[in-house]
Design the sequence.
């Protein structure tokens, strides 16, 4: 990555923005919390559960301010940024609680302001603090974040790397069609819109296939090819990697020159403004990962996820020699890497999942040479869709999880209708975290002894009601631990 991500004028704007942000922050303390993760990692569910548990005084024993009864009230307020869509909290909670269906996932950036009125823990603090904190939750696709390294890459760098990745064994068959199409065009030939479109569509189809295939690969840029937001169908997305012309530079007017120009336009008009207007203003960040899905898919997918987390961390690394991101901009001081959906495992495996995420994060931190923020990990379920139980099988007693599989889910021959509860033995995660990162690709097929987790999607839970008929907040696993790390110190 190049040493400077932004040009001088961009940096000046970031500085002005953040100084203005700080000045207003003096009057009403606020914290900008970024929530990201690749699509379907659980961002929408996390934010909905976060807000619901605070507004409804959920059971959060590891969240100190709540546990000690110092939170007077939490409520939603108008967000400070008029140009950003609001996170549709009410719709999402309606789906989860009333209809018991999962809400619509994140497709673009959105924001929500949650204000917490609290009593400071110390008498000294009570004299000075207003006892009010506004948390601006900013939800955005992780795919967009993975674009940031592009700012330091030329079109030829980008093309070369895209091709290298496409040739990896886990991706080669999915990328074959695009690679063949690409190999058949002459980068020096005159630029032609139809060729550009065919290449862009084929490249986008390959990226989508990586994500959808049961291999559960993470992704590679450009992020808007997967999550276009409001750029759907725009010419800014009509480019694809091309191999560099064999000798010399491609002439103006050639296909290569056109693709290069569009790639640069994508960086200038899409990637940079997103970084400047949103990422550079964050104080804290949670990165959600679907580690279970990657675990199930095998070491190739785990390596891919690790690469994605490495690139995401690199985005939050204070820019070396970059005056304004070093000095003026608010710097992210805490990052939480959270594996969601731990309710698919029995609690005996929760610590194992957390240990696996710890390993993954440590490796990513080392690879990204990341410093400058506290990074913690958690295995959690923002919404807990299952209960635990045991089932006797012969002389053995097996720990099981019990939930209502979504309509259309299957276990063996059994097809679920969305109403029937069932108990499943989800399987154990390996005791040693290292095992899941080992590449067994050289070993003969089927010799990978680690059992996969039996993974069924469940419906959101039925909320319990108190004797007075008041429904309780959404159940979770370790959401309180996540909250404590992300905002706890600001409510001390
Ligand atoms: P996003 O794309 O990151 O916004 O992902 P969502 O928040 O929409 O989550 C995608 C899907 O993952 C949901 O539709 C659920 O099926 C599942 N999911 C997310 N969080 C949880 C969780 O805490 N528990 C369970 N059981 N499923 C979850």
Sequence:
């Amino acid at each position: 990555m190049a040493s400077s991500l932004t040009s001088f004028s961009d940096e000046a704007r970031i500085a002005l923005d953040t100084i203005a942000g700080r000045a207003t922050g003096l009057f009403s303390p606020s914290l900008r919390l970024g929530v990201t993760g690749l699509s379907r990692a659980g961002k929408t569910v996390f934010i909905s559960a976060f807000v619901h548990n605070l507004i409804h005084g959920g059971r959060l024993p590891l969240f100190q301010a709540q546990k000690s009864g110092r939170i007077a009230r939490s409520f939603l307020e108008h967000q400070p940024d008029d140009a950003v869509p609001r996170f549709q909290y009410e719709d999402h909670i309606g789906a989860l609680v009333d209809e018991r269906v999962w809400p619509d996932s994140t497709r673009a950036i959105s924001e929500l302001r949650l204000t917490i009125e609290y009593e400071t823990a110390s008498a000294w603090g009570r004299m000075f603090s207003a006892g009010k904190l506004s948390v601006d939750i900013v939800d955005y696709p992780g795919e967009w974040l993975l674009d940031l390294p592009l700012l330091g890459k030329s079109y030829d760098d980008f093309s070369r790397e895209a091709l290298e990745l496409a040739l990896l064994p886990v991706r080669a068959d999915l990328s074959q069609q695009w690679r063949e199409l690409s190999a058949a065009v002459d980068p020096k030939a005159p630029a032609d819109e139809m060729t550009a479109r065919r290449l862009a569509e084929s490249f986008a189809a390959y990226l989508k296939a990586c994500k959808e295939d049961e291999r559960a690969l993470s992704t590679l840029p450009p992020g808007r090819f997967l999550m276009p937001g409001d750029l759907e169908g725009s010419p800014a997305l009509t480019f694809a990697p091309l191999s560099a012309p064999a000798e010399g530079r491609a002439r103006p007017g050639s296909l290569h020159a056109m693709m290069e120009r569009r790639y640069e336009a994508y960086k200038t008009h899409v990637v940079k403004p997103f970084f400047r207007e949103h990422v550079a203003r964050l104080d804290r960040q949670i990165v959600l990962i679907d580690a279970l899905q990657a675990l199930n898919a095998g070491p190739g997918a785990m390596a891919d996820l690790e690469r994605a987390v490495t690139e995401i961390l690199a985005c939050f690394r204070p820019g070396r020699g970059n005056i304004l991101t070093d000095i003026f901009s608010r710097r992210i001081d805490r990052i939480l890497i959270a594996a969601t959906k731990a309710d698919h495992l029995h609690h005996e495996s929760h610590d194992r999942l957390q240990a696996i995420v710890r390993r993954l994060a440590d490796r990513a931190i080392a690879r990204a040479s990341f410093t400058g923020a506290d990074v913690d990990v958690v295995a959690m379920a923002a919404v807990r869709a299952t209960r635990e139980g045991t089932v006797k099988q012969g002389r053995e007693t097996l720990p099981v999880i019990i939930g209502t599989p979504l309509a259309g889910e299957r276990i063996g021959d059994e097809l679920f209708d969305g109403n029937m509860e069932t108990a499943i033995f989800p399987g154990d995660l390996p005791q040693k975290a290292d095992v899941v990162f080992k590449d067994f690709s050289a070993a003969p097929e089927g010799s990978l002894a680690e059992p996969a987790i039996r993974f069924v999607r469940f419906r959101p839970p039925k909320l319990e009601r108190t004797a007075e008929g008041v429904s309780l907040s959404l159940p979770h696993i370790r959401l309180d631990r996540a909250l404590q790390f992300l905002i706890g110190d600001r409510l001390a």
User: Anything to note?
Assistant: The longest strand covers residues 110-118. Residues 148-272 form one domain. The pocket of guanosine-5'-diphosphate is lined by residues 37, 39-45, 102, 105-106, 340-341, 343, 381-383, 385, 457-458 (CB under 6 Å).
